Amino acid sequence: MITTIVKGSMDITKLLAGEGRSTSTITQYLSLLQRLHKRRGQHEGLLQRYHALFVEAIHDLAEERKTEQEVMKTAVGKAEIERMKKCLAKEIKEKLYPKGAGNLSDLEKGLLLQSLMLSLYSAIKPLHSDLCHVKVVRLGETRTDRLVDSIVETCINKFTFHRACKKQTGEETRFELVPRALNNQIADSLRLFPRKYVLSNSTGDEGMPSKALKRAFSTIFFKDGTVLDNSSLVRLFNSVSGA
């Protein structure tokens, strides 16, 4: 039906189905176009108006995706991620370790979590979603909420990642985190900054806010104000880990 109005709608359908990109506005335009087309004789003016808005939104989305792909391709690669991991690890060892547990400022907590974020995103393959709300279950504690992702300490300085159970089947996926250095990094970070979530807010009581996660990553690599959304971060690290 809509193919008689919007030329190339098969390509548009594929674009709308693109992974990780919000399409609510474009979907609304498409829904309006479909409804108006049924009453084309009565609403010809509105039909033309929303067709124009729909095409404009599609063009904007294409430009956003092109920009995002260029940024991901040229600005951040495996070598750059590894370089930043080493730089942050060195800074943390020199500046934060001597301070001891519970003595970090909010800025220092942010530095600690930036380093951990890079290590976790690089190690968990494939990433299915961002790691904003992964709970910490310490040694001796019981994992009570199986509907959220968790990192469980199974013995001293050794952690297992538990994906949230699927509501329909109750199926659960778990795997040990490797390498050993990552386990030590998680344990050290929890010692310096005790908290309930692996990546958390400044108090440690809640998961890291989505906007804070985007800023934390973006400030590591981009000095021009570029900010990738969370789904873009997931795709970036999955593409790098597969390289």
Automatic annotation (TrEMBL):
It comes from the Eukaryota. This is Uncharacterized protein.
